[in-house]
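Appendix C: a fully annotated inverse folding record. The material below is reproduced so that readers can follow the format used throughout the book. The structure is listed first as tokens, followed by the designed sequence.
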């Protein structure tokens, strides 16, 4: 074709240009694919090397999900830049991959929150999930830091192991806690189905890291005991006259002092800086490196006090356990989630379990039990306590059919009182009456929570053993 004043245009030229562009695009795609394949092959060659393969295989064999463990290491982006010569190296790669999985899960939940038609409780439960995922991310990051310093000369091997294992154990629990918010009705369960894949993946990743950490630290501790003597672990626990390593000199002086000057005062009658504990917590500094003391004057404070993790180094100082009382009430019926129903954890030692004055006249109308298994591996031990006759002879109650009856761990030892008899107790596979003091000893504060190394700092009365 020709046009007056224009050059001749060949119809084959655009076609050639198009073919050339397509060919160039194909070359670029092919190059990218070859690059990816080369990268994958490079990592596979690294992990298939005899020494690396042996270490990775040995480490992953200690986990519950070895295939996931192995593929995680094989696909680690930094594998080509990092030598794998010890189990610690494998764990480091595993933790980094776990961190990435947690971050991905966080954004998945954020997207789910934008869905239309969510109920108020579903939104609350999803916000709970974001909080627990955020906690998990902090715990995995802290585990990475601790692993990088392992073994730290500032702590014993046992303390190193306990800290690392506690971080990963908490991270695993967080995944279940998130899912627990979606068990109330059919609509809840639909949201749960959208979450479960990501949550379980992170749980398995954390589980693998925990298993490898336990295997590594157990081996190191055993080697150290063999080298230095069997009394090493007992010496590491510390006596009741020692302060915990994390308590600063300033805090020790603060706890030993008979007079403490508070930063702010809470008083229900308006005579302090704030009328509620929650208001005082909200006004406290974030990320404080110094202890911030909130004195709570005598009175009844009907509120659920939540202390965000950024409010560090807070100390509550009341006027006495019978005069300063904080009480609140949250339950599922009112639209709350289990995650938000409790704000503190407690340990009851050598206690008295009996009816309150208002329950005593009508206790026969309200069957009372020592506990029921909310989780598959629920564990409750009641030892050396006085149990009143309000406790049903069966002692324990089911949660839902035969759920957890063989996997739970319910124990009783050395109790007294009208409700302490065990002849009529449940016959579940997981229930047992302890008859050996040696067996009971493992549940005492000194052994179970290493109380000898830190309980003194609380200034509360305690007993480490039986």
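Designed amino acids, in order:
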């Amino acid at each position: 074709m020709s046009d007056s004043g224009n050059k001749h245009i060949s119809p084959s030229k655009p076609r050639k240009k198009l073919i050339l562009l397509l060919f160039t695009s194909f070359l670029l795609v092919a190059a990218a694919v070859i690059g990816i394949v080369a990268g994958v092959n490079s990592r596979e060659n690294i992990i298939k090397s005899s020494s690396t393969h042996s270490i990775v295989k040995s480490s992953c064999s200690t986990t519950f999900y070895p295939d996931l463990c192995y593929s995680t290491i094989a696909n680690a982006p930094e594998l080509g830049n990092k030598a794998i010569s010890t189990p610690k190296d494998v764990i480091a790669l595993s933790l980094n991959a776990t961190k990435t999985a947690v971050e991905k899960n966080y954004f998945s939940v954020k997207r789910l929150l934008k869905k239309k038609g969510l109920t108020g409780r579903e939104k609350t439960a999803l916000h709970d999930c974001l909080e627990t995922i955020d906690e998990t991310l902090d715990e995995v990051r802290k585990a990475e830091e601790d692993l990088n310093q392992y073994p730290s000369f500032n702590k014993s091997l046992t303390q190193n192991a306990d800290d690392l294992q506690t971080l990963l154990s908490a991270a695993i629990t967080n995944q279940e806690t998130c899912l627990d918010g979606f068990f109330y009705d059919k609509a809840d369960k639909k949201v749960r189905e959208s979450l479960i894949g990501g949550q379980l993946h992170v749980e398995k990743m954390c589980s693998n890291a925990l298993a490898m950490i336990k295997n590594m630290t157990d081996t190191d501790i055993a080697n150290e005991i063999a080298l230095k003597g069997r009394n090493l672990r007992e010496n590491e626990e510390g006596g009741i006259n020692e302060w915990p390593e994390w308590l600063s000199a300033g805090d020790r002086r603060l706890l030993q002092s008979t007079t403490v000057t508070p930063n702010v005062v809470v008083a229900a009658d308006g005579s302090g800086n704030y009328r509620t504990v929650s208001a005082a917590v909200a006004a406290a500094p974030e990320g404080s490196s110094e202890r911030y003391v909130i004195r709570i004057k005598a009175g009844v404070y009907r509120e659920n006090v939540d202390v965000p993790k950024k409010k560090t180094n807070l100390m509550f100082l009341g006027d006495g356990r019978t005069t300063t009382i904080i009480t609140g009430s949250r339950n599922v019926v009112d639209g709350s989630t289990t995650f938000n129903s409790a704000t503190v954890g407690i340990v009851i030692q050598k206690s008295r379990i009996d009816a309150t004055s208002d329950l005593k006249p009508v206790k026969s109308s309200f069957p009372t039990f020592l506990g029921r298994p909310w989780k598959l591996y629920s564990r409750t031990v009641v030892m050396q306590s006085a149990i009143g006759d309000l406790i049903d002879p069966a002692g324990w109650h089911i949660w839902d059919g035969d759920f957890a009856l063989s996997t739970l761990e319910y124990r009783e030892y050395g109790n007294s009182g009208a409700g302490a008899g065990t002849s009529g107790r449940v016959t579940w596979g997981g229930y047992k009456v302890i008859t050996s003091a040696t067996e009971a000893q493992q549940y005492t504060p000194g052994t179970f929570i290493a109380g000898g190394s830190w309980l003194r700092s609380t200034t509360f009365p305690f007993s480490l053993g039986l």
